[in-house]
Amino acid sequence: MSSRAQPCPCGGGDYGACCARYVEDGLPAPDAEKLMRSRYSAYVQGREDYLLATWHASTRPQPPLLQENTKWLGLEVRRHVPQGERALVEFVARYRIAGRGQRLHEASNFVREQGRWWYVDGSFPGAGKTHASQQQAASNEKPGTARNPAK
Ligand SMILES: [Zn+2]
After folding, report:
1. Contacts for 12 with CB less than 8 Å, ≥ 6 apart
2. Neighbours of ion ligand 1 (CB under 5 A)
3. Percent of the chain whose predicted confidence (pLDDT) is above 90
4. Ligand 1 centroid to residue 140 C-alpha, Å
5. Domain boundaries of the chain, sorted by first residue
6. Which of 116, 127, 133, 151 has its CA 20 to 30 A from that of 103?
7. How far is the CA of 48 from the centre of ligand 1 (A)?
8. What is the Å distance from ligand 1's center to 14 Cα?
9. Distance 78 CA to ligand 1 centre (A)
């Protein structure tokens, strides 16, 4: 667990002044970008409870969500497009899994219901896969299996 005085995993300043307000204190994220950033920080810190709590009930997967050998390296938010009760956040997250560098480029869909923003699903610009199918593919993968990233 990160100290609040340390840099936030999402790159947005001190953890205490950034994603800790949502991940640790349970405040509702005021917009979809902040929710997306806090979910990234939750992935970094292995906070599956927070990921499930911010996932829309219609698309929420069954745990486990996290892969133990994933090391998250950084987040870059490319776009935040709010449209009333919906929003799109496009980002690139870099991580390493089983020693191999990977890049997740996702356009995530969020919806606001009951005064909170929720993660719904994502698409992959240039890859044409859903988040669920990519996670499925990743979880089926065995260590040491040669991987051929979709191009
Ligand atoms: Zn943050």
Report:
1. 18, 19, 37
2. 8, 10, 12, 18-19, 37
3. 77
4. 30
5. 15-140
6. 116
7. 16
8. 8
9. 15
Answer for the pair 36, 110: CB distance below 8 angstroms, yes or no: yes
Q: Taking the model in full, what pTM does it have?
A: 0.82
Q: Say if residue 16 is exposed, middle or buried (CB neighbours under 10 Å; 0-12, 13-18, 19+).
A: middle
Amino acid making up residue 129 = K
The answer to whether residue 138 scores a pLDDT higher than 70 is no
User: 147 CA to middle of ligand 1, Å?
Assistant: 31
15-140: CATH class: alpha beta
Taking only the tens place, the pLDDT of each residue in 84-111 is 999 999 999 999 998 999 999 999 999 9
CA 113 to chain centroid, in Å, comes to 19
Strands of the sheet containing 86-97, edge to edge, are: 70-83, 86-97, 100-113, 116-123
Q: How many Å from the N-terminal Cα to the C-terminal Cα in the chain?
A: 35
Residue 130 CA to ligand 1 center (angstroms) comes to: 25
Taking the centre of ligand 1 as the mean of its atom positions, its distance from the CA of residue 42, in whole angstroms, is 9
Quick one: pLDDT band at residue 136, thresholds 50, 70, 90?
very low
